[in-house]
Amino acid sequence: MKILKKSRKTAYVILGSISLVLGTLGIFLPLLPTTPFYLLTAWLYMQSSEKLYNKVMSNKYFGTIVRNFQEDKSISLQTKIVTISMLWGTILLSAFLAVSAWWLRLLLFAIAIGVTIHILLFKTKRKL
């Protein structure tokens, strides 16, 4: 039983680390989400390692984003602006520099519109 518990914790740490890498890649890749992977990372680390969970929650780059979302399902105005700006910047670069098929450009724009609407539908975190 103890071995099974240790194996589960090890699996959670590995999956959490993979999720952390994917979330970080999502900063630079327009179709890979960042926040959901960071939320998954926090949950997996919470299940397996208090030390790793605390590192995620105290991270100066994304700890506040994860904490705000966990507490009240909100995103700060600054995070919304940066996220949507980076989304559209990378979509536009991809659509006009890397993609030549019109239907693929259309798909990229549809995805960008959908993600933008999704982000805007979350409550905006007010500074206290």
Describe the protein's architecture and organization.
With 128 residues, the chain is mainly alpha-helical. It has two domains: 1-72; 73-128. Helices cover 79% and strands 5% of the residues. It has helices at residues 2-28, 35-48, 50-57, 63-72, 77-98, 102-121, and strands spanning 74-76, 123-125. The chain has a two-stranded parallel ribbon with strand order 1-2. Helix 1 runs antiparallel to helix 2 and helix 5 (77-98) packs antiparallel against helix 6 (102-121). The termini are far apart.
Keywords:
128 residues, mainly alpha, two-stranded parallel ribbon
List the helices and strands and how they pair.
Layout (H helix, E strand, L loop, with lengths): L1 H27 L6 H14 L1 H8 L5 H10 L1 E3 H22 L3 H20 L1 E3 L3
Parallel strand pairs: 1-2
Helix pairs in contact: 1-2, 2-3, 2-4, 5-6
Domain unit count: 2
Beta-strand share of residues:
under 5%
Report the principal-axis shape: globular
Helix-strand makeup class: mainly alpha
Residue-averaged pLDDT: 87
Based on CA atoms alone, the radius of gyration comes out at: 17 Å
Helical content stands at over 70%
Count up the helices.
6
Count the beta strands.
2
Q: Largest sheet at a glance?
A: 2 strands, parallel
The helix-strand sequence is HHHHEHHE
Biggest sheet: strand arrangement: 1-2
CA distance, first residue to last residue: 46 Å
Which residues form runs of ≥5 with pLDDT under 50?
none
